[in-house]
Specification:
Keywords: Coiled coil. By secondary structure, this protein is mainly alpha-helical. The chain is 64% helix and 0% strand. The protein contains 8 helices and no strands. Helix 4 packs across helix 6 and helix 5 crosses helix 6.
C-alpha cells in the first residue's frame, strides 16, 4: 500500500505559476472535460480526493502554515504530477488533468465574480493565520485593479 502524502509549503511553491500561464493551461484543458463520462472513468473517490486537494491548495493556509495559492496561480500540470505521485489512485493522467482544470476554472470564476462584486471577503475563506488573510485580501485587490473577467470557452 502506498502511503498518502500531504501537501507541503514546498509543494505549493512548485505548483505556483504566474496568472497568465496558469489560466492559459486551465482554458486549454478545462474545455476537454466531458463531465459524467470522465467522472465515471476517474471514480468518485479519486474525484473527491482531487477536489479536496485543490481546496487545500486554495484555502487551507492553516494546515500549510500560512501558504496558499489563489486559484488562478495553480499550474494544473504540476498539480496533476503531484497528485499522481502522492495519492493512491490509478487514474488516467489526461482525464485527471481535464477534471482538475475544469474544477479550478470554476473556482477562478467564482473568485472573479466575487471580486467584481466586492464580496471577496465572504466568498472564499482562507483558513489560517492573520497574515494569510491579509495576503488573500491584497491579492484580491490586485486582481480587482486588473479588471479580471471570468474564463469563457
Amino acid at each position: 500500500m502506498i502511503e498518502t502524502i500531504k501537501l507541503t509549503q514546498d509543494d505549493i511553491q512548485n505548483i505556483k505559476a504566474d496568472i497568465d500561464e496558469a489560466t492559459k493551461l486551465i482554458k486549454h484543458y478545462a474545455i476537454q472535460y466531458k463531465g459524467q463520462e470522465h467522472y465515471d472513468h476517474l471514480g468518485a473517490s479519486c474525484v473527491m480526493s482531487a477536489t479536496n486537494t485543490v481546496d487545500t491548495v486554495i484555502g487551507s493556509a492553516q494546515y500549510l502554515d500560512g501558504a496558499f495559492l489563489m486559484p488562478d496561480e495553480i499550474h494544473v500540470e504540476r498539480l496533476v504530477d503531484w497528485f499522481i505521485k502522492n495519492k493512491e489512485f490509478e487514474c488516467d493522467r489526461a482525464i485527471l488533468t481535464f477534471y482538475f482544470a475544469n474544477y479550478i476554472k470554476r473556482k477562478i470564476n467564482a473568485l472573479y465574480r466575487s471580486i467584481n462584486k466586492d464580496e471577496f471577503a465572504t466568498t472564499l475563506t482562507i483558513m489560517g493565520n492573520k497574515e494569510a488573510s491579509k495576503e488573500f485580501k491584497k491579492q484580491c485587490r490586485e486582481r480587482k485593479k486588473q479588471g479580471v473577467k471570468i474564463i469563457r470557452q
